[in-house]
DUF2946 domain-containing protein (Paraburkholderia phytofirmans), 195 residues
Amino acid sequence: MDDIVKQALTKWPNVPSCTGWLMLDRRGNWRMRDEAAQASGSPGTPIRHEALLAFINRNYDADERGQWYFQNGPQRVYVELGYTPWVVRLSAAAGVEARCVLALQDQAGGPFEPTAVFVDEEGGILFADGATPPRVAVLHDHDLEVFSDHATLADDSMSGEFRWNNQVVLPLQAVRRGDVAARFRFVPSPAAAGA
């Protein structure tokens, strides 16, 4: 968390939080949701300002209930999640000895080291890491081809394996999309949960 945010929290400790105004969509875009967007259920307007995006990413965290928020100075802005609290991009590059090196990077620009891979009934790919509790991230849909180049799917398309950097084979595990939030202990809509 930024020092300026910590100072604001100390100076104004009782600022009410807000919900519904910020969304992390299924592709890792931060979106502002004005009253019209909230009323219509639309995802809102993408935020494009690089400094603001960096500020949000540095001050993004979860509370003890699994509700994700952006600490905007003294105010906690709870985040509507398009799917998971993290969205990752998968890239492949040529490495030493003609090996392909895979990398996962979350929407904040940080590395993501997978320890488990899941596939939902809609074909969404999710990764979990080894943190306690584990972070879960949905794979950006533009990277499904890179994923499929390193995966073997069974006939049911809900099982198989994923080869991570030619060293680790991670079995594909089936998960129902509706069960993901409970399984990984996060709240997709803090506004609905009464943050």
